[in-house]
Design goal:
It contains 8 helices and 11 strands. By secondary structure, the chain is of the alpha+beta class. It folds into 2 domains: about 10-100, no CATH class; about 105-220, no CATH class. The strands form 5 sheets. It has a 3-stranded antiparallel beta sheet, with helices on one face. A two-stranded antiparallel sheet has the order 1-2. The longest helix has 22 residues, at about 20-45. It is elongated and about 65 Å long. About 45% of the residues are buried.
Length: about 240
């Protein structure tokens, strides 16, 4: 049974008593994910997050009487779109956990717990990404903090470890607006949290209350034209 909002990966389980259900596996994973996010934010990151989460799922299942070995599979090593989910296996049971509505642990670690309530991982509905060249679409994406597939951004597990990028796995990126750290720029998260320097193009929101900066590379990725968006030029 698929549940709205979040769906988790699966586990390999052996139980001499009752057979583990997919629903029980999903709830155990969901609870473990929420616990891992809280721990990551409180501790400033979790080492070996995949192993940590596997063990937490197993603990949640043990509380229900299941003695199981949990295995998480990440397909985003070869599939960029797979950064929005992971799989959990338990014996004959398999679940796919979608990171839809999950708090972003990296945002919580770097910007504070309150920010993580607003930055929840939700896949951007605008595809291809060049559609962001239309100002209304970009505005909607900024306001709702949609997440995008990224070759350079961190996936969920790297974010649990307080990493803004991961060279092995494809990840995610989200636009950071209003420069909460006072860095003099607001852009995609993995650049915002790095020492990367570039030309940043400045855009004022339609309501005039927000300012957004984007580097040349991401202007191209998102189809953003200085002329069409009436940007103010280099910042």
């Amino acid at each position: 049974m698929w549940v709205s909002a979040l769906i988790l990966t699966c586990i390999f389980v052996t139980n001499s008593n009752d057979e583990l259900s997919q629903d029980e596996l999903w709830h155990a994973t969901d609870n473990a994910v929420e616990h891992a996010i809280d721990e990551a934010i409180n501790l400033g990151g979790i080492a070996n997050s995949k192993i940590y989460l596997e063990e937490e799922i197993a603990k949640k299942l043990a509380e229900k009487g299941y003695s199981v070995k949990v295995k998480i599979i990440r397909e985003n090593e070869i599939d960029i779109d797979a950064a929005f989910y992971f799989d959990v296996f338990a014996g004959k049971v398999k679940c796919r956990y979608y990171l839809d509505g999950i708090r972003d642990p990296l945002i919580g670690i770097r910007l504070g717990k309150d920010y993580s309530l607003h930055y929840r991982i939700r896949k951007c509905p605008y595809s291809p990404y060049e559609q962001h060249g239309e100002r209304e679409i970009l505005e909607d994406c900024l306001n709702k903090h949609y997440y995008h597939s990224s070759r350079d951004g961190a996936d969920f597990f790297a974010r649990l470890e307080n990493k803004s990028s991961d060279g092995r796995y494809y990840g995610l990126e989200v636009f950071i607006t209003d420069d909460p750290l006072g860095c003099g720029r607001s852009c995609v998260d993995h650049i915002y949290f790095s020492d990367y320097t570039s030309n940043y193009h400045s855009l004022e929101s339609l309501d005039g209350e927000k300012r957004f900066y984007l580097d040349d590379c991401h202007c191209k990725k998102y189809g953003i034209s200085m002329e069409s968006l009436s940007m103010e030029g280099l910042h």
